[in-house]
Q: What sequence folds into this?
């Protein structure tokens, strides 16, 4: 029976996304220029709403941090890339820096034994790897915004177009499909030897408490990081998604990956916290999931940190 779970799950996901799209095709009749059924059929007037959102985000980040004379002459696609690059760096250093300060200094020896606190060397290396990858990471949201602005995806601009109940349902479907996509992308990065050797191994050189740190969260080969984030963009062609929610969830990845690399087991079911992810870094064969334990549970790769600790004690 357990072997049927994956097929049932895929069937349910596809049915739910198709039902959601169909119900929105009906409700979108009243939205001028909007057609949820296919990409590329949205009127220029409707697409202007995405363009305005993008310009507002550019102004919010670039307008505050840089003189207008530096960024406003750039082509629009470069403005978007620069904004994503700066926002990515801010999210990485603020979330990683604050969390590291809290667990290693402020609460020293509370969550992490003092003798397991990572030294400066692995943290510095993680920051270097991340900084090298960040220019390419920033290209993914830039591509996704380009496709959204040109009407290629099923994105919609305002929550009130679909109403809050549909918005919540669609956001849940988006997250479930992202979870499914990231699980399989991550698992293939381990199973396909050449991908592991040339891409994913870069992230797996950190494999214990005193080498893993919140700064390891984005320390990937740039192509590895992009491959694992692709489900966020691919889902836009399947599920009608609120544009700014997609942007926000993509950037939340930066905060989430900080959290799952701190080696502190949060014990909040069904969240796949750092306790699970630390096991992933040590066994290489378990806990490929991202936000929750469900994909690993369904596909038979889950290993529980509490059971693991108990086994070690009994040995
Ligand atoms: Zn891995
Ligand atoms: Zn990791």
A:
């Amino acid at each position: 029976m357990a072997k049927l779970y994956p097929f049932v799950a895929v069937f349910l996901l596809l049915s739910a996304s198709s039902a959601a799209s169909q119900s929105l095709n009906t409700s979108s009749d009243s939205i001028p220029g909007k057609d949820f059924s296919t990409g590329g059929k949205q009127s220029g007037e409707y697409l202007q709403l995405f363009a305005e959102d993008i310009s507002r985000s550019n102004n919010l980040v670039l307008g505050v941090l840089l003189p207008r004379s530096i960024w406003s002459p750039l082509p629009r696609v470069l403005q978007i890339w620069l904004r994503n690059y700066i926002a990515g760096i801010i999210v990485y250093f603020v979330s990683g820096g604050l969390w590291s300060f809290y667990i290693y200094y402020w609460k020293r020896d509370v969550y992490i034994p003092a003798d397991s606190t990572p030294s400066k060397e692995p943290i510095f290396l993680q920051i270097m790897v991340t900084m090298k990858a960040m220019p390419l990471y920033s290209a993914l949201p830039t591509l996704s915004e380009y496709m959204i602005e040109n009407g290629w995806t099923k994105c919609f601009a305002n929550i009130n177009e679909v109403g809050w109940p549909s918005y919540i349902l669609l956001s849940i479907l988006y997250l479930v499909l992202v979870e499914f996509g990231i699980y399989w992308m991550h698992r293939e990065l381990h199973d396909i030897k050449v991908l592991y050797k040339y891409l994913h191994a870069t992230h797996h050189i950190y494999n214990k408490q005193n080498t893993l740190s919140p700064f390891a969260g984005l320390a990937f080969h740039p192509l590895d990081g992009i491959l694992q984030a692709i489900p966020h963009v691919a889902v836009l062609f399947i599920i009608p998604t609120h544009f700014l929610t997609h942007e926000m969830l993509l950037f939340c990845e930066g905060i989430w990956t900080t959290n799952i690399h701190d080696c502190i087991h949060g014990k909040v079911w069904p969240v796949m916290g750092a306790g699970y992810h630390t096991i992933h870094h040590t066994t290489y064969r378990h806990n490929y999931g991202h936000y929750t334990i469900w994909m690993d549970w369904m596909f038979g790769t889950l290993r529980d940190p509490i059971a693991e600790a108990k086994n070690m004690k009994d040995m």
Q: What stands out?
A: The two ends are 32 Å apart (CA to CA). Residues 43-267 form one domain.
